[in-house]
Amino acid sequence: MEFTELLNKRTCVRSYRNEPVTDEQMREILEAGIRAPNACNYQSWHFYAVRDKDIINSFNPEIARIPWISDIPLLIVICVDETAAGALVGKFGERGRLFAYQDTAGAANHILLKAADLGLGGCWIGPMNAEKCSERLNIAENHTPVAILTIGTPAIEMPVRDRKPLDDVITVIGKTVTSISPETEKKAKPFKLAHASVPGAVFEDLNLTDSKFRNINMQGAGFEDINMSHTGYEGLTLSEARFGRIDMSGAEFNGSDLKLAEFRNASFENVKITDCNLDGMTIDGINVKEAIEKVK
Ligand SMILES: Cc1cc2nc3c(=O)[nH]c(=O)nc-3n(C[C@H](O)[C@H](O)[C@H](O)COP(=O)(O)O)c2cc1C
To answer: What value does the mean pLDDT of the chain take?
Structure first.
């Protein structure tokens, strides 16, 4: 499932079909569990996967209140590994113990997400009698049960539970960064292509407004249907280039070679041409150099 869809779809499932969770599914969800972030990578967790129906059924209500217990094909008891927790305490003092509990919470979350990803469902049970749980499952002394997860195939599709509005639960400290519009982004970081050799390149559907072209050899290039208004051209070789349906209004040509360049259906309003070679350049079949001579 796509990740955001998974996040939005996962919900606690408290009613399961009478179907087993396969070995492969069980391993997959536990694999997801151990991928969780954890303090110092000490992985201070241990998981007891319970599939014995009688043992599972004996959990309610003595160990935890799980009214839907008789349907559960898999129950995962998440424990703190006290050896790893002790190492965390040795390193960070008493708060190291809190890190071990945080590790197990992360693992539980990964497990529930992976279960949902596989089309299974799960529910997290917090309140429990850890001592009785240890006795019932013969849990090792250095493992402390902290949470139970019930896992199975959902019997019905559960509606997703609402959350408080995000703004009610967040406090932003520091500047708020508003999303950058493509327009702003373009201005902040203009696209730049420099020192490139791209013979035969094709540029299509372009908006080149306000672009600058410097020292570029575009001999024989073809330009069509391009917004090139207010562009600037300097030291360009555009000889024999062909321009069709181009908006060049406001463009500036400086020291460029426009010899035999051919413009058709182009808009040339307020174009400035300085020190350019205009030999044989035509606009809609009109020889530009001759036209200028006539005006003079
Ligand atoms: C620490 C913890 C303890 C929980 N304990 C129980 C529980 O004892 N019984 C239960 O039915 N659900 C329990 N839940 C599940 C929550 O009720 C559930 O996650 C919450 O209502 C939000 O619903 P959702 O997970 O479907 O979005 C627990 C969840 C957490 C994280």
So the answer is: 89
Distance of CA 37 to the CA centre of its chain: 19
Alpha-carbon gap, residue 146 to 127, rounded angstroms: 8
Predicted confidence (pLDDT) per residue in 53-110, tens digit: 999 999 999 999 999 998 899 999 999 999 999 999 999 999 999 999 999 999 999 9
Do 151 and 238 fall within a single domain? no
CATH of the domain at 233: 2.160.20.80
Residue 273: pLDDT over 80: yes
Query: 254-290 as b/e, with b when 16 or more CB fall inside 10 Å?
Result: eebbbbbbbbeebbbeebebeebbbebbbbeeeebbe
Q: Which residues line ligand 1 (CB under 6 A)?
A: 11-12, 14, 123-127, 161
Compute, in angstroms, the gap from residue 253 CA to the centroid of ligand 1. 69
Domain hosting 88: range is 3-158
pLDDT level of residue 268 (50, 70, 90 thresholds): confident
